[in-house]
TrEMBL record:
<dbReference type="InterPro" id="IPR013604">
    <property type="entry name" value="7TM_chemorcpt"/>
</dbReference>
<keyword id="KW-1003">Cell membrane</keyword>
<feature type="transmembrane region" description="Helical">
    <location>
        <begin position="80"/>
        <end position="106"/>
    </location>
</feature>
<dbReference type="GO" id="GO:0030424">
    <property type="term" value="C:axon"/>
</dbReference>
<keyword id="KW-0807">Transducer</keyword>
<protein>
    <recommendedName>
        <fullName>Gustatory receptor</fullName>
    </recommendedName>
</protein>
<dbReference type="GO" id="GO:0008049">
    <property type="term" value="P:male courtship behavior"/>
</dbReference>
<dbReference type="GO" id="GO:0005886">
    <property type="term" value="C:plasma membrane"/>
</dbReference>
<dbReference type="GO" id="GO:0030425">
    <property type="term" value="C:dendrite"/>
</dbReference>
<keyword id="KW-1133">Transmembrane helix</keyword>
<feature type="transmembrane region" description="Helical">
    <location>
        <begin position="275"/>
        <end position="308"/>
    </location>
</feature>
<feature type="transmembrane region" description="Helical">
    <location>
        <begin position="180"/>
        <end position="202"/>
    </location>
</feature>
<comment type="function">
    <text>Gustatory receptor which mediates acceptance or avoidance behavior, depending on its substrates.</text>
</comment>
<dbReference type="GO" id="GO:0043025">
    <property type="term" value="C:neuronal cell body"/>
</dbReference>
<comment type="similarity">
    <text>Belongs to the insect chemoreceptor superfamily. Gustatory receptor (GR) family.</text>
</comment>
<feature type="transmembrane region" description="Helical">
    <location>
        <begin position="138"/>
        <end position="160"/>
    </location>
</feature>
<dbReference type="GO" id="GO:0007165">
    <property type="term" value="P:signal transduction"/>
</dbReference>
Length: 429
């Protein structure tokens, strides 16, 4: 996770959900210099997630052993529900343990990001970048909290509605619904895990984008058309007043679209930007386990929710319950895209650097720069700039088609099992 002034809101909220058991060490002027674990926050994080996990399985056991279960009426629904719950529990435990055991990676990640920011500040205005990143983090956090709170509220209302229908057969049906409340609380931890990753990935992507902007700004010889700013002059036809023109001001108004001037040597600029790119490439590698847990949970949730939606559409045909399942399907798709899209944006920006450096290699005539450009080029070719789930697959938009195929395959298997359950129930013993 990224810990900085622009991400402090998301960081402090993630501590409430047990995902960031760290305290920040600052200088007297407020600058962040180090991070360390807090024993109190570690105990709080472990206690929170394992307490909720234990209560969740207790609620499942109460539901499955009741006279009239609320959710688990058939053998297939029992397997799918337990798998659905177990995925949320395991993803939350993974996020908590990653926060506890990942201090070394957090320090190294933030050290490299700070180093990249310090170099980029020579070429790109830092205050604008920080404010924009902070606004994006707060907006994403608010949107996720609003969506998950609304979905959970509707889901609880629907299950209480179903419990009222079967109260004659099971007087404790409302207690069955109440037993799933810890499971709903785990969803907040899971969504916060998504927000932490998305903000970190977008932060790296923004730095890649500003690196590319710095390359364009420092080397405007890519064939861009100069932009000429001309101030309007009001002329009074009745008066012949002389026009006082400041030649220096007119020359200053001619620019190539950027306000900064190249004050450093071209060789130094290329070397600095190569260092930034290498640091950001290392940052991408540190998210493998988190991506594996998040993408695994998204796949299983999409399969389970699609199954329950299809069963409802061809079975009881409860319109309200079907709409709730469709809403959960939308939320799981939103979770999936919240993981995929930041990865894709970052991958595109990092690969765009290759295109820019390739253009520089073709157009550069400066002998002093050619060696630095070629070294940067070799670094780009030899490195991997894509997010991967522990090296198993590259995370970008192409994975969406793979997920669609996997969901369709598992959905067909589950429907076949359901038909087998229905046929076995109709067969006389």
């Amino acid at each position: 996770m990224e810990i900085s002034e622009s991400t402090k809101v998301v960081f402090y909220v993630s501590r409430i959900f047990g995902l960031a058991p760290y305290v920040v060490k600052r200088t007297p002027i407020g600058q962040i210099v180090d991070y360390k674990r807090s024993v109190f926050l570690i105990v709080y994080s472990v206690g929170l997630v394992f307490c909720l996990a234990g209560l969740t399985y207790k609620g499942i056991f109460f539901d499955v052993t009741s006279k009239k279960p609320i959710r688990m009426k058939t053998a297939t629904s029992k397997v799918v529900t337990i798998l659905d719950v177990s995925v949320v529990v395991s993803a939350c435990i993974c996020g908590t343990l990653s926060g506890i055991g990942g201090l070394h990676f957090v320090r190294e990640l933030n050290r490299r990001l700070t180093e990249a920011d310090e170099i980029l500040s020579l070429y790109v205005k830092e205050s604008t970048r920080s404010r924009r990143q902070q606004r994006k983090g707060i907006l994403m956090l608010g949107l996720v909290c609003f969506i998950i709170t609304g979905a959970l509220s509707l889901d609880i209302w629907v299950w209480y509605r179903i419990a009222d229908k079967i109260k004659k057969e099971n007087s404790n049906s409302s207690a069955n619904v109440l037993g799933y409340f810890p499971f709903y609380c785990l969803y907040y931890i899971l969504m916060m895990f998504h927000v932490l990753f998305a903000q970190a990935a977008l932060g790296i992507g923004n730095r890649f984008r500003h690196l590319n902007v710095a390359l364009y700004e420092m080397f405007p010889e890519f064939g861009r058309t100069p932009r000429i700013e001309i101030s309007s002059i009001n002329l009074d036809s009745d008066k012949n007043n002389p026009i006082d023109v400041d030649l220096r001001k007119c020359v200053a108004n001619v620019a190539h679209g950027f306000d900064r001037k190249r004050t450093l040597s071209s060789r130094k600029i290329i070397e600095d930007l190569a260092v930034i790119h290498a640091s950001l490439s290392y940052c991408i590698v540190t998210f493998g386990i988190a991506l594996l847990a998040v993408l695994g949970s998204c796949l299983l949730h999409l399969v389970a929710t699609s199954y329950f939606l299809m069963v409802e559409l061809v079975g009881d045909k409860d319109a309200v319950f079907a709409w709730i399942q469709a809403l959960w399907l939308f939320i799981h798709i939103f979770r999936f895209l919240l993981t995929i899209e930041p990865c894709h944006i970052t991958n595109v920006e990092s690969n765009r650097t290759i295109t820019i450096i390739n253009s520089l290699r073709r157009t550069c005539k400066d002998v002093e720069m050619i060696e630095s450009i070629n070294m940067f080029w070799q670094q780009l070719i030899a490195s991997n700039f894509s997010f991967t789930a522990c090296g198993l697959c590259t995370i970008d938009r192409r994975i969406i088609t793979s997920y669609c195929g996997a969901i369709a395959t598992y959905l067909v298997i589950l429907i076949q099992f359901k038909e087998a359950d229905d046929n076995s129930g109709k067969t006389p013993h």
